[in-house]
Specification:
8-stranded parallel β-barrel; alpha/beta; two-stranded antiparallel ribbon; 400 residues
Length: 400
């Protein structure tokens, strides 16, 4: 996820009801959600077939990001019945937009606060939806809690950093044991400008960013021997992503060489039309290079997920009908390529289902010069389905 996406995230960590903890187990004022021992049933009381019902025919799930409360204007909430009707109708899995990040669940070194994450899990279980974990480590200083950026690691910094990270991952994963079976263990560990892994307080204490990332995955694997462990990053098929894709390949190759237990690559897929290719009428895309990238990733044995899909429509005309048609066309082209890898492709998730709650409304690079709302999700701000929803349904249906 883009670093500027979470301007409101700091408020989450300060507003949750924190609970002091000692030792690795942690805790909160409410008991952990009960483990799910069997796959959740399909949502009830909704029109069929939703996108998830179609996706299930191919053995995968369709889902969306969701929030616990409506405090963030850019978050669709479980408190919004219109929004949740869409989620229950179209999705089989949800992912917390902010509620599992360090700022939210660990506001202080000895404090864990799970109230908001627990709300999402209980709501999902009540409504027969699975939950993904996002994220155990967003390895960027601007998305660390302040206390971690300034933490004194003492006389044995390696040991203390290892303790903090291990404790965090153990506490979160143990709380949702049997509930969450796919985690974005590490999110966005590469600096787009430097084309190298990012340095943080943890990496400086431990000697390198790779030492931090490896420990995160090894700790997660020890706690979750059969669950899916994902490296998640901000990329898709636009030409400007080529260098970043090369950096991700190097990172994935390093994981393989070092025996780091990474199962899958999470491809965020915030596909963008910041300019228009006259030959296609949609944003420029590098299909051949993107296929080469996917070939290399899957050739190393990694699974694929689409974790945060939406569309940036900045360069499209303001006319809603024309814009929606082009957004749908661009997404169709993208997903036709992704589903060419269906034997490697697992779940597909949107980063929100309704335009007005989508993070792009507050993301400056995506804002339109005409001031109009970005129309990059399957439903508009009046909760009406758009051509994008039909395009997704058609591609997933055709893929089988």
């Amino acid at each position: 996820m883009s670093a500027t996406r979470r301007d409101a995230l700091g408020a989450i960590g300060t507003s949750v009801a924190a609970l002091a903890m000692s030792g690795c187990g942690g805790g909160s004022a409410t008991p952990a959600p009960a483990p799910v021992s069997t796959p959740p049933p399909a949502p009830t009381g909704v029109q069929q077939p939703g996108i998830n019902t179609i996706a299930a025919r191919g053995g995968r799930r369709f889902g969306s990001a969701i929030a616990s409360t409506p405090g963030n204007a850019n978050a669709g909430s479980i408190q919004n019945s219109d929004y949740t009707a869409i989620i229950k109708g179209e999705c089989g899995i949800v992912v917390p937009e902010n509620e599992m990040k360090w700022q939210a669940v660990r506001p202080a070194p000895t404090v864990f606060a799970f109230d908001r994450m627990d709300e999402i899990v209980r709501w999902a279980q009540t409504n027969g939806l699975a939950v993904r974990g996002h994220t155990l480590l967003w390895h960027r200083p601007q998305w660390f809690p302040n206390w971690l950026n300034t933490y004194d690691f003492g006389a044995t910094p390696v040991r203390e950093a290892e303790r903090l990270l291990t404790e965090h991952i153990q506490t979160v994963t143990r709380r949702y044991k049997g509930v969450i079976t796919s985690y974005d263990v590490v999110n966005e560990a590469i600096d787009h400008d430097r084309n190298a892994t990012i340095e943080t307080s943890l990496s400086r204490a431990m000697g390198s960013p790779e030492a931090v990332l490896d420990l995160a995955f090894h700790t997660a694997r020890a706690e979750l021997p059969t669950e899916q462990l994902v490296y998640n990053d901000y990329m898709s098929w636009e030409p400007q992503h080529a260098k970043h894709c090369a950096d991700v390949l190097r990172l994935l190759e390093g994981f393989k060489k070092r025996g780091t237990p990474v199962d899958a690559l999470g491809i965020q897929s915030h596909i963008e039309m910041f300019s228009i290719d006259p030959a296609t009428g949609v944003g420029p895309y590098a299909e051949r290079e993107w296929r080469r990238f996917l070939d290399e990733v899957t050739g190393m044995g990694y699974r694929l997920l689409v974790t945060e899909f939406d569309v940036k429509d900045k360069a499209l005309p303001g006319n809603i009908a024309q814009r929606d048609e082009k957004v749908a066309d661009f997404a169709r082209r993208y997903f036709e390529v992704m589903f060419d890898y269906k034997q490697h492709l697992d779940d597909v998730l949107a980063w929100g289902m309704v335009d007005k709650f989508n993070w792009l409304q507050g993301f400056d690079p995506a804002k339109r010069a005409d001031g109009l709302e970005v129309r990059g999700t399957p439903y508009d701000s009046t909760y009406r389905a758009k051509p994008l929803l039909t395009a997704l349904a058609n591609v997933i249906t055709a893929a089988g």
